[in-house]
Amino acid sequence: MSQARSLEPWRWLGIPMVQVLAATILFGVPLRIWGLRLPEPIFPLAVVFAWAVIRPSMIAPFLVLAMGFFLDLYWGGPLGLWALCLLIAYGVVLAARPIMAGQSRTILWAWYALVVATGHAGGLSVRDAGREESARPDPHAVAIPRHNHPLSLRTSAHRHVRRRRRQVPVGGAG
Amino acid sequence: MSLRDSPLGELKVPLAWTAAVAVIVAGVAATAVLMSDRRETFQAEAYGASRSVSDRVLTPVGEVLSAPGRWTGAGVETIRGYFFAVSENRRLKGELREMRQWRDVAIALRDTNERYRVLLGLKTDPPIPMVAARIVTDSRGPYANTRLANAGREKGVESGNPVMSEHGLVGRVIGVTDGASRVLLLTDIASRTPVMIDRTNARAILTGDGGPNPKLDYLRGIDPVKQGDRILTSGDGGVLPRGLPVGTAVKGLDGQWRVVLASDKSAIDFVRILLFEDFTQLVNYKDLDRTSVPPPTPGAPTLPPPVPATPPPRARRPRQSPAPRPRR
């Protein structure tokens, strides 16, 4: 009987981290195919969820922090916002880990959706904290699933705007 | 006595608790960094060394990764041009006929304009130099809408310079380093752009909200905007030049006026960075601050004689003792 392979940190933390950061850079290419941009999945969110489910670790939160800083620097957002968003997601999974243990894959997908929504809600709350009411974004304008679903989904508000755009005569009113 | 032998040696902290402590420590670090971030001040010095270094490193990576897509696009265009050359030629001839008529109108208008300028002594804005750049990375997620362009400080790009595609205004530069500049799009939540409605000359502030169609805030006047009105930059505040095309007005489902951006018509791959300097940057403050003394009015009482260069020795005054404090 072969001996069980030990869970080396570089194997379950290091390699997935490098993979998701490489995928992030690859999908950051400004490419449009038939007018559509590349999909917008946030790859590190999947890794953050998996790390917390596999086992609690002292190194993982700091790697989550590093990934968040990288996303902020790469995408030009406020430094620390993505780090906080990912850490919220990690913390939620860590707290709910005893409940998740032994659940089916469908239930884990539902948990993943919930964790992503919670992370984004936290991130959006932090971003909008201190802004005046008129400066806050329209919730319809920032669709959470759009940034995590493999396909870039549009909200009903945007579809409406697009429909109206088609009604506008070419060249505007002039 | 070794630690193993001591009673503390048997103490085992649950892994979940240590992980939770690590999460809290990392969260505090992220919050501290976030609170010290001054990205939205848009000051050149607030951009930070870490952002400059990462932009400088990521720009060549983005260029390499986007090269296959660029080559494929160029190849498809070549094949399309080969197969559709006849129809394209016909379309271009029609366009040329139309443009010739517009050329005659433009020459007449230019002549009229020059006459008016001479008559009025109007001082118009100087021509704006510009540099071309290619967009090498795109942002993802709801928190930032920025792009990285491959032209930086070496080409004279500065923080605040407007960026345009062939269709209209894209945004403005918020950070510059050697060989790269970060462009904040009009759709970013931090973007505020003074605009005007071309038809009514009404002013508004174009406010990004993370979605593809930014809002028109602070609209003034009665019915200042209609569906399909053309939106241009107003030039108010001197941040952007006046008259750059921004888009067309539409009413959103939420009842707010929004703008369908002109730059959204096609992919933002090549851009022009306008090396625009507003009036406050062009003006010579030294000349303005220099106040010349007017000549004396004939017949008016003259000023007292000037003070001699070497003042007379001052009389030694007796040393005064400090005034006594009033008793309470």
What are the key terms here?
A: 174 residues; two-stranded antiparallel sheet; 6 helices; B: 328 residues; alpha+beta; 6-stranded antiparallel β-barrel; 6-stranded antiparallel β-sheet; 5 helices
Could you outline the blueprint of secondary structure elements for this entry?
The complex is a heterodimer of chains A (174) and B (328).
Chain A: H1 9-26, E1 32-33, E2 36-37, H2 43-54, H3 60-75, H4 81-100, H5 105-128, H6 156-167
Chain B: H1 15-36, H2 49-83, H3 85-120, E1 130-138, E2 146-149, E3 162-164, E4 169-177, E5 180-185, E6 192-197, E7 203-207, E8 215-217, E9 230-233, E10 245-251, E11 257-261, E12 270-274, H4 279-282, H5 285-289
Antiparallel strand pairs in B: 1-2, 1-12, 2-5, 3-4, 3-12, 4-5, 6-7, 6-9, 7-8, 9-10, 10-11
**So how many helices of chain B?**
5
Number of strands of chain A: 2
Radius of gyration of chain B: 31 Å
SS elements, strand count of chain B: 12
Oligomer: heterodimer
How does the overall form of chain A come out from the CA principal axes?
globular
**Series of H and E elements of chain B:** HHHEEEEEEEEEEEEHH
Mean pLDDT metric of chain B: 83
Radius of gyration of chain A: 19 Å
Order of helices and strands of chain A: HEEHHHHH
User: Which range does the strand content of chain A fall in?
Assistant: under 5%
